[in-house]
Amino acid sequence: MHASKSLQPTSSGSRTIILVVFGLFITLLGAILFAGSVGPVSIPFSRTAAILLELIGYPLPVQVTEREWLVVSQVRLPRVLVGALVGMALGISGAAMQGVFRNPLVEPGYVGVSSGAAAGAVCALFFGWSQFGRWALPLSAFIGAVLAVLIILAVWRSSRSRSIATLLLLGIGINSLLSAMISIMVASSSSDQELRSIVFWLQGGLEARTWEHLQLIAAPILSGCLLMLIFGRHLNMMLLGDDQAATSGVNIRLVRYLLLALASLMTGAAVAVSGIIGFVGLVVPHIIRLLAGPDHRLLLPASALGGAIFLVLADVVSRMVLQPVTLQVGVVCACIGAPVFIAIIIRSRRGGHAQ
């Protein structure tokens, strides 16, 4: 009963949601400005801000060189914005799926999206499809993600047990199968260049991302985020159990299908241009939940913005920490996310024993 009351909308709760989301949005803008300024070619924040404002139609009387303009507008900004959208997709998808499964250890990759995208991309590299055009690789990754999810859902619907735990187990099984197929292709790689391309994609990265990549993922990710925000109240009700949610007017099966479809669409689009990036959809919703509570009306938008901030800053670390060597951003996310995740588990277990 207490949990039910704590998740009911109130005027003070609505103000809190607005303030937190606004604060995170301002933080994201600051992270984008910071990421656009730092790098091998350092550019003052004022000039980076002037370039960003001019790109959206608000020129400032600040002199910038042609080199600075090209570095920010053509090299860094597309990469930073792609990273922000990828982090946004992974963050909000992780929060939604943790609510659907009622399991805080779930992330988007658990239903086969990431493994399917990886299998599709590795097939494109292994069989040479990536030579047909610059979009062959992300398109193959997206198709692989969609096919993996469709297979899992088809098997789940045809099984005797249609519990949400069965769906999770099917996702784990498909992940193992696809990982084995990827390992076979890696072991059978015919050239060092092909092997290097496969390994780099599997590690996840934002190198050489362009405005065209941004255009490719902007519509599915932004529209998916907006649609997912509609289900905040439904997820709150589902946290109280299926019976309580059903008596409150929630069509549980429809909501689950829609949320899984939206999460798969956004994650597939994100992974198609960035490769496999783990821990964002797992750790960011955890941190937001610890700081702001379990209300999905706040958790969903905060996880989207938090995921964007996390990945933008992780990409800065990947570019700067070992100059002139550039790390893959997926490696940086794992190095940061894994210890945080372990700490969260230790903290939650201590809390459980304390109770």
Structure explained in plain terms:
- It is found in: Cell membrane.
- This is Iron complex transport system permease protein.
- Pfam families: FecCD.
- One of its GO terms (cellular component) is plasma membrane.
- Keywords: Cell membrane, Membrane, Transmembrane, Transmembrane helix, Transport.
- The protein is globular.
- Helix 5 packs parallel to helix 12, helix 13 (280-292) crosses helix 14 (296-320) and helix 13 packs across helix 15 (329-354).
- The chain has one domain: Orthogonal Bundle (ABC transporter involved in vitamin B12 uptake, BtuC).
- The protein is 77% helix and 0% strand.
- It is built from 15 helices and no strands.
- Mean pLDDT is 86; it is low at 1-6.
- The two termini are 18 Å apart.
- The chain is mainly α and 355 residues long.
- It has helices at 2-6, 11-37, 45-55, 66-101, 113-126, 136-158, 164-187, 192-203, 211-229, 232-239, 242-247, 252-274, 280-292, 296-320, 329-354.
Residue fraction in strands: under 5%
Largest sheet: none
Helix content: over 70%
Q: Write the H/E string, N to C.
A: HHHHHHHHHHHHHHH
Query: In CATH terms, what is the architecture?
Result: Orthogonal Bundle
Number of domains: 1
Helices and strands in order:
Layout: H1 2-6, H2 11-37, H3 45-55, H4 66-101, H5 113-126, H6 136-158, H7 164-187, H8 192-203, H9 211-229, H10 232-239, H11 242-247, H12 252-274, H13 280-292, H14 296-320, H15 329-354
Short description:
The protein has helices at residues 2-6, 11-37, 45-55, 66-101, 113-126, 136-158, 164-187, 192-203, 211-229, 232-239, 242-247, 252-274, 280-292, 296-320, 329-354. The chain is an all-alpha fold.
